[in-house]
Amino acid sequence: MTTRRKPVTELILIGVTVVGLAIDAWVHLDLASAFRNVKTSTLSQADLFRVEAVAAIVAAVALLVRPRRYTAAFAFLVAASGTVAVVLYRYVDVGSFGPLPNMYDPYWLPTGKWLSAIAEAAAAVAAAALFVTYDRRARESRRRPLRPAAAADH
Predict the structure, then answer these.
(1) pLDDT digits (tens, 9 = 90+) for 11-20
(2) Residue 136 CA, distance from chain mean position
(3) Smallest Cα–Cα separation from 114: which of 91, 147, 139?
(4) What span, in angstroms and rounded, lies between the C-alpha atoms of 17 and 34?
(5) Whose CA is closest to 103, among 55, 51, 37, 52?
(6) Within 10 Å of residue 39's Cβ, how many Cβ atoms?
(7) Whole-prediction pTM value?
């Protein structure tokens, strides 16, 4: 069995992604109860905050346990969607549609809101870089010719 050490850059990207997702999860869990009254007949903003938090936790743990293209892609999707949502609802009054409540909030307060936006954006960028790194590595390994077992013994 051979073990391969991860390059420092890869470890840093994993760390930035995991920390960003952890901040995302903490902020959403912390603020969820404050938004329980923003709701439709189906969902409240608190429900959506909790879903975002769980998705961020799952993405962070998956990336730590199995750092691969698909876990980096999942981490990117969670972080990027969180970034887009917080910025969109900060600047655009989308209104409610379908089961989603009107989550327009034209302020960067409470503090967790802007902290979450920065952490999500950093996690999204780091996860995208990880995905590119893993994808490039996978493409290179497919291009290398395999040595036949008999040739390796001589």
Answers:
(1) 999 999 999 9
(2) 20
(3) 91
(4) 26
(5) 37
(6) 18
(7) 0.84
Kindly tell me if the per-residue pLDDT of 124 is higher than 50: yes
Identify the residue whose tokens are 């998705």.
55
Q: How far apart are CA 108 and CA 69, in angstroms?
A: 33
- Report d(CA 91, CA 44) in Å as an integer: 20
- Alpha-carbon span 18 to 67, nearest angstrom: 11
CA distance 79 to 55: 9
Number of H helices, E strands in the chain: 5, 0
Contacts of 108 (CB under 8 A, 6+ apart): 90, 114
pLDDT of 35-80, one tens digit each? 888 878 778 889 999 999 999 999 999 999 999 999 999 999 999 9
Mean pLDDT (whole number) for 4-25: 93
Q: Do the Cβ atoms of 79 and 148 come closer than 8 Å?
A: no
